[in-house]
Design a protein that fits this description.
Elements: H1 4-25, H2 31-57, H3 68-74, H4 78-106, H5 110-123, H6 125-150
Helix pairs in contact: 1-2, 1-4, 2-4, 4-5, 4-6, 5-6
Length: 151
């Protein structure tokens, strides 16, 4: 059964999260702003909404985390399903913000990590794996040059 308040919260949270992802895409233009939005502002807003949903709805489901069936039962409740969605929105964005910071730290061009950011947004761990592969390749490159120069 649809609850208009939960539907509005879903839409609003999705828009807020998208603002964080757009900030990361355009991070080279305003790096401090992008990190503030994606690391602090959006995760705080979604985290507060998450906490409110958990507080309000947690006792209304017989589900839990001990088995896949229990998790399924837990997420059959629309309020807790939305809480799970907010969990994803907050954590995936936080990971995306780390990817941008880490790319800057190791010297990966921003354009090169944009596909990893898109994948992190859409498929979380797959995007992180792509980013980690890019980062590993970047970190190995200076080592290979150093070894080649001494050989």
């Amino acid at each position: 059964m649809s609850d208009p308040l939960l539907d509005r919260l879903f839409s609003l949270a999705s828009l807020v999260a998208m603002a964080g992802w757009l900030a990361l895409v355009f991070a080279p233009l305003r790096p401090s702003f992008a990190q503030a939005v994606a690391t602090f502002i959006v995760p705080t807003v979604t985290g507060l909404a998450y906490a409110g949903l958990i507080t309000r709805y947690w006792g209304e489901s017989s589900g839990g985390f001990s088995s896949l069936d229990q998790v399924s039962t837990l997420f059959n409740h629309r309020g807790l399903l939305l809480a799970g969605w907010l969990h994803y929105l907050a954590f995936d964005l936080f990971v995306g913000a780390w990817e941008v910071r880490e790319a800057q730290r190791v010297g990966l061009p921003h354009w090169l990590i944009l596909p990893a950011l898109a994948l992190t947004f859409l498929f979380g761990p797959i995007g992180l794996l792509v980013f980690l592969a890019l980062r590993t390749a970047r970190l190995r490159r200076p080592l290979a040059r150093t070894q080649g120069a001494t050989a």
